[in-house]
Each structure stands twice: as structure tokens, then as C-alpha cells.
Amino acid sequence: MKPLKEILKEVEILEVYPKDESWLNQPVYGVSDNSKEVSEGYVFIARKGTSFRGEDFIDEAVERGAKVIVRETPVETEKKLQGVYQIRVKDVKKALSQIVLNFFDHPEKTLTLIGVTGTNGKTSVCYFTKTLLQTLGIKTGYVGTIFYEIERRIPATETTPSLIRLAGLMKEMVEKGFKACVMEVSSHALDQGRITGLKFEVAGFTNLSRDHLDYHKTMEDYYQAKKKLFTEYLAPEGKAVLSFETESGKRLYQELKDFLSEDRILVVNNGTLRVEILGLEEGLEVELKFLNTGEAYRVKTSLFGEYQAKNLATVVGILMALGYSKEEICSRLETLKNPVGRLELVAEFRGAKIFVDYAHTPSALEHVLKSLLPLKKNRLIVVFGCGGNRDPGKRPLMGEVAENLSDYLIITSDNPRFEDPERIIQDIKQGLKGVKPCKVIPDRKEAIEAAINLLEKGDILVIAGKGHETYQEIQGKRYPFSDQDEVLETIKRLNKEYLK
After folding, report:
1. What pTM did the predictor assign?
2. One domain, residues 92 and 168
3. Tens digit of each residue's pLDDT (9 = 90 or more) over 380-397
4. How do residues 151-200 score in pLDDT, each as one tens digit?
5. DSSP state letter for 343
6. What's residue 500's pLDDT?
7. How far apart are alpha carbons 128 and 122 in whole angstroms?
8. 10 Å Cβ neighbour count for 485?
9. What is the arithmetic mean of pLDDT over 18-38?
């Protein structure tokens, strides 16, 4: 509990109603911008969302126990809200940030914050960075797509949650002695100002390719949202680590040079730091070359995936930006393992390898399949689908990529959400030329079982699209479903049938 005057510090207030002698001492037990999460003694912040007005939910918040309403629109003095204070602020997003961070005792001032944005690679880069910092003795939390980690693992609801959730997680980190937090920063969070009030000591950029155009509408809008991590959320002395693996990284470098000094920008996957692949079959073996100094380090890892070489370069850049030496970093790379659902080797069956990966964009699927080609001794079999109520333009592109790089396709459902799975599959098929064997099995469980039944010695099977997810979203409901569990259950069942 905190008195209202403490959580309103530095908030620009325009008016208060009713303004009596005791309003600043009103006890506050929680803060929320979601009326359904309000409890007795809460502050409800009526912010504007992408498809709603916070003011429309004030009555519900009051019914649930809100004692303070923070809003940007004029106070409704004619509307009697018994025992409730209404506070009008100049900028409700800024007010939300200040109120939340005040309530949670500003954990962002204690933690070293590292944020990574980009279309692909965020999860691997963040997870690897967290792992390496832990081996260096820095107790580090993680917030991202696969889960939130603070000694315990919490299922992730969003890649970058609301500041209210983030501040709560970071406060717990501080209380448990954590010194750093690595987080994936999504374009949605950046566009919506979801991390207003946070400043990152290091901000990393992986790459940019087609994704989320159902939200951003154009690639330029998508790029500009990503750029905000560096222009609005970098600490005054913070450093940017940019990968040159796509042209967007080179563009971002040129644009950031206008207001960041040269020593605050580190570039990787270019002429400064390059990672050359030496081997792939038994795990990624690489040589890290620092061409400006002539130094080189050979590393044998347990990672699968050619694309992880570029992610490693970004990780090394982030650790260097934090002040660690090349020797300290490179000597620990061999400890890394693929994150759950990121080219995860789930099982081997009949002499074939079975991988699960989150690839749900054309670029990500292409990276994954190209990475697996050197491992196959026979066929590369792909099971994949596309999510519903998301950018439909990428569906035929993913079909084209899958057909070009695989030997056998099974098209199935992903998270159809409110769309007809058959319609999504038809969109995918628009990208096929019919030159590879292809089956359509809408039921994902049946599709996985069919693919495993096909396996022969030397095959590679990749089940793409859902990765770490433990559900399938259909018509507004999430049903328990894990690609990994389905693989293991199918193998167990087939082995029993074979023993009979």
C-alpha cells in the first residue's frame, strides 16, 4: 500500500475532483488499466487503447473497487462516483508510466536493462545473452516470447507485456537480488508506448523482414516502430548493437549516426565482427573473426541452425557493449543450447531427426530450412501452417519457401483463431507450383502423426509455426496443444505398436 501522493510524484495533473483535504492520502493497493483486473483500493488508468476508450470502462472499474480514476478527458463532475477521486492528467500514457514505476519503487533504476528488437532472432539473442550473463555471475531475468524467468518460469502472455506487468516482474527481480534484465521488445510494444519510462543500457537490432503487416500496414511503419527502441528508449550513455544481416540494419546505422556518437554504436555481421561456419552436423562450429584487430576464436557449440551464427554475433556485440572482453565471452559460447521451440531437437526416430521451430514468417522459415539442409541424408519433410487473423499476404510466400526448400510438405493448421482453417490452407497453396509431394491435413495432431509415419533413416522433419506454444487458438479459445508433446506421444505409440 502507498498513499496517493507518492504514486503521483512528477505526474502533470490538470484537475482533481473532488479536491478535499484528504485526497493525497488516499491509500492505493494496486494500479491497473484493465477494468477486469481492478480490486478494492486500486487506481484505474483510463487510457486509450487501439480499439477502445478507457473511459468506457470507468463504471466497471468503480464497481470492482477502484478508488481513483486517472483520465485524459475532462472530469465528469456531474456524474457522482461516490467515494472515488477523478484525476485529469495532461498525457495519460506518461502518467501511467510514472504512476506504475512510482508504485513499484522504480525497479528499472536498479536493473541493467538490455532490450532486443527485430523480426527474427530476438528470442535466441535474448536467451543466449541471459545465459551468458548468468555464467559471468550476473543474476539476470528474462522477459520474452517463450516465458518470463525470475528463478521460476512464468508462461508468457505477450512478447513484451504491459508496463504494469513488466514493473511487477522487475520489482520481483530486484527483491530477489537480480542485477540485470534482458527483454524482447516487440514492434507492437514500441508503437503503443508500452515501455514508456524504461531506458536500456544496451539495445540490439537483429533484422527486419515481413511480419505483422496486419497491424503496421506497411514495412516502413514496421521499421519506424522498431527504430523507436534506439531513438526513444536508449539510456543517455546507452549503446546500440546493430546486425548488418539485412539492409534495415545498415539503414538504421546510418540514421542513428546523426545523434549517437560512434563509440555508442557497435555493428556485427559485417567487416568488424563476422562469424564463419566451420561445421553444422553435430552442432554449430564457428570461428568468430574480429577483423579490426585480427583476433579469431574457434567455438564448438551444441546449437542447431546456420542462422544461429548471426545471432551469436549479435550476442557477442551485446556483451562487449556491456564491457566484457572477447575472451570472457567466446570462452562461454559452448555452454549455449537452443531455446525451447527454436530449432529444438525433440527426438530421433528410425534414424531421422525431428525438430520443432517457431518459424512463422517467410524469412524465418527460409532460415530454418536452409539451416537443416546440411543435416539431411535423405529427405527434408516440413509440417507447417499459418495463423489466422494475421497478415494473409505472407501465407503464399511461406508456401513458396517451404516447397522450394523441402522434399515433402504437409500443410496443416496453426492457430486459426477466428478464421476457417481451410481458407488459410488455400491461401498457402497459392504459393505452390505443384513440383513437390504435398498433403493437406488440417488437424495438426493428425498431420504430425502422418509426418512421423513417413520417416526413414536420414530424414529430417521440422514442425514449424508454434515452437514453444502449449496451446492452439480456435474461435477465441485456447486448447492445450504442444508440438513437442505430440511428437513424443506419437513415437511412444508407434513403438508400442511395433513391439506388438
Report:
1. 0.85
2. no
3. 999 999 999 999 999 999
4. 899 999 898 999 999 999 999 999 999 999 999 999 999 999 999 999 99
5. S
6. 46
7. 10
8. 13
9. 92
> What percentage of the chain reaches a pLDDT higher than 70?
98
- 315 and 227 part of one domain: yes
Is residue 196 within 8 Å of residue 94, measured between CB atoms? yes
Q: What is the DSSP string of 212-245?
A: -HHHH-SHHHHHHHHHHHHHTSEEEEEEEEEE-S
Q: What's the full length of the chain, in residues?
A: 500
Name the residue with cell 522477459.
143
DSSP string for 176-215: TT--EEEEE--HHHHHTTTTTT--EEEEEE----S--HHH
Per-residue cell: 338: 537452443
Q: Which of 335, 352, 376 is the last residue of a domain?
A: 335
Same domain assignment for residues 141 and 207: yes
Read off the C-alpha cell for 110: 536498479
62 and 126 share one domain: no
d(CA 242, CA 207) in angstroms, rounded, equals: 9
| 302 and 423 both lie in a single domain | no
Q: Where are the beta strands (DSSP E) in 370-486?
A: 380-384, 408-411, 438-440, 460-464, 471-474, 477-480
One-letter amino acid for residue 262 of the chain: E
Cα 97 to Cα 139: distance, rounded to the nearest angstrom = 26
Strand partners, 438: 409
Q: Which grid coordinates belong to 118?
A: 527485430
Q: What is the CATH number of the domain that holds 258?
A: 3.40.1190.10
